[in-house]
Fold this sequence. Notes:
The chain has 22 helices and 13 strands. The protein has about 575 residues and is of the alpha/beta class. The strands form two sheets. Strands 4-3-2-5-6-1-7 form a seven-stranded mixed sheet, sandwiched between helices. A six-stranded mixed sheet has the order 8-10-11-12-9-13, sandwiched between helices.
Amino acid sequence: MNGDKDSNWIDELRLQFNSLFSNTILVETTDKKRNEELCQKKPKIMNIKGAKRKENWIYLDGWEGFYYWKKNDKGELEQKQFKNGSVSKYGINEALPTVSDELYKGNRILVVSNIFKSNDHFNNAIRGWSNSDTLRDRDTKIVIFADDRSMFPPEVWTHMKIIKPPKSTWKEREKTIRFQQDELNPTTKIGDKKITDVVRLTAGMNLDQLESAVIKSIIIENEIKLSVLSKEKNELFAKNPVIDLIDQPKFGFEGVGGYQSLKNRIRDDVILPLRHPEFAKRYCMKSPRGILLYGPPGTGKTLLVKSMAKELNMSILLLRPENILGKYVGESEKSMRKVFEIAEAMVPCIVFIDELDRFSKRSGGDNVSSHVERELFSMLLEKLGDENREWFFAGATNNIDAIDPALRRTGRIDSVAPVPFPDEEARMEIFKIHTTVKRKLPLKNDIDIERIVKETYMWSGSDIEQLVIRTSRDVMKSDIKDKKHDLKIGMDDFLRILNTFNIPVDKNEGLQSNVKDKVMEYTNDKRLMHVFEHAQDSHVSKSKTEKAKNITKGLGKKKTIWDDKNE
Length: 567
């Protein structure tokens, strides 16, 4: 999943010119470097019979008008304007008759660029050139660079072949990074490992965006710095409303408390084969393509996906159904295709859909909204089943019964894993992580972690995090009020805030039992039952009074959070 295939869009362009009825190709890209690449390489794309003839390249630019390049007396190329080829207040319309005259001379390749808004004059000219038998017979070709085909009416671009170059390949990004480093900062050497990290981080950026980000980093920091490139990339994707780019967490699985059996399964089934594709190939295994996590709300499904991305050093693209659905006909399908384009450009990456059950229902009503949702689901199914898909898919749901069986088919999603409520050991780790790892809280030495673990029976990981946050906030208010600036959080503070929670223990026990019952039905893997070995605490749910008695009875020496500080 390195996305290191060579860019061969120019070869495709040459092939299409020599095999199609149309003499016009629309190159759909926002990257001006692709235009420069074509003009610099000037490949032999003419289909000339008999004696060789010279290819004459001419250019129609929305900013610079109609021109060509010619060598001067010194052998240097100079840009020469055609007569009546300049841009006026009417745009390029006045130059179109001159362009047509030049095209009908034959053996011409016209490159059109920087046309951000078409008009009737231009559309009629393109339609006429595309359908001209005379231009085809005279080996005249037209290449149009445009951000999106929708800028032209369908009756115009349906007569063209449309080519979409990749945003950037692994090799192209590496070449660009090394070139800019050598040009702007030749005295500083950059190691292969850092090059690999930069190339991986900048997946999804086109070559023009990459070059700008690298130059900015070298100017500001005097080096290529990952933090600068990451910020630039995030700003680019923040402008795209259909998908969110999630920052990688600081921690991998070490930031997920408990769930050791589940983490081991994800490591074995997903992370190891993706990290070592050469071994997977040796044993005739395909790379994992998807995982579905199911369980009650707040148990850490999203956190597990983020941590998995950190372990794999992959970007996470969060797909929200509400961002996809549009109010106009065809808008939702267009947004969905845009998501797939971004994912393919970002390889290696993880496309993540939270609350997947909202998205994956094939059945529905007969209204327009239901029809659109079914269409989007069909598009998702088709893409997940695509043999050439290189990005990894992750889904999370609280209601696995609502997931269409077609989505869970092997080849679309390889692994289904339950995420139950955390057991005693997990709750202890979660509490430690939120008080001493993710947050460095000022704690007293009287924290009785075993009592907190007992009191939080059938709490989710997010509930425990909220306990820590609300306790910290409460002590902070007291510190601000008293202006002591030295208060620490003690056991009494945690117990006081703990009593403000109303956790539905009986309801959560029912949810836990339901998650366990679904294991064999949806995973067909007995090994996943190990996830529940310690998920049921040693004691059963009792009344509040009985539980309070058991907590204070027979505890002996209290175990504080500091007893395990060297673990």
